Amino acid sequence: MTGDEPVTWEVRLGDQQPQKRLIVFGLAILAGLIGMLFFRSFAFFLVGVAVVVFAAAEMFLPMRFSLDDKGASARCGLSLNQILWQDVKRVVAHREAILLSPLEKPSRLDAFRGVYLRLASNEGLVSAKIRALVPSHAHFLGTGTDGGGEGSDDRKDVE
After folding, report:
1. Any idea of the CA torsion for 25, 30, 35, 38, to the nearest 10 degrees?
2. Tens digits of per-residue pLDDT, 33-53?
3. How far is the C-alpha of 19 from the C-alpha of 91, rounded, in Å?
4. Backbone angles phi, psi at 49, to 5 degrees
5. Which residue of 13, 85, 97, 112 lies most exposed, with the fewest beta carbons within 10 A?
């Protein structure tokens, strides 16, 4: 694989987990009813529904991911997260995703910094592309879900 071929893919969480989509939709209706009850206005019903639906947009809209020579990006609706390869300090492999972080050490800010790449059935392709493009100073870590792999600094962990 050459470094100039972009890798793009799409993940639809709502299609993978339709029962969760129904739960979120039900909660959105509940939030709307509560808004209408307290403020006695149908407009607040719409506001309550919209707030929950937009907060859980990943359940209703496709997420699109891209890796190219410049960096990585994740888009869902109007939301766009990007990181340039030179800014990547850590690559953390999770069970169903890879985090590209600008932070050198694990932090509570990980949830708000970097790009979280959800994987489809393309783990090998995405890992190979990341390995080819990420700077040599970046740390490659194992799974961050249980903290067990956070101390690892081995490029083979991201597979």
Report:
1. 180
2. 999 999 999 999 999 999 999
3. 31
4. -65, -45
5. 112
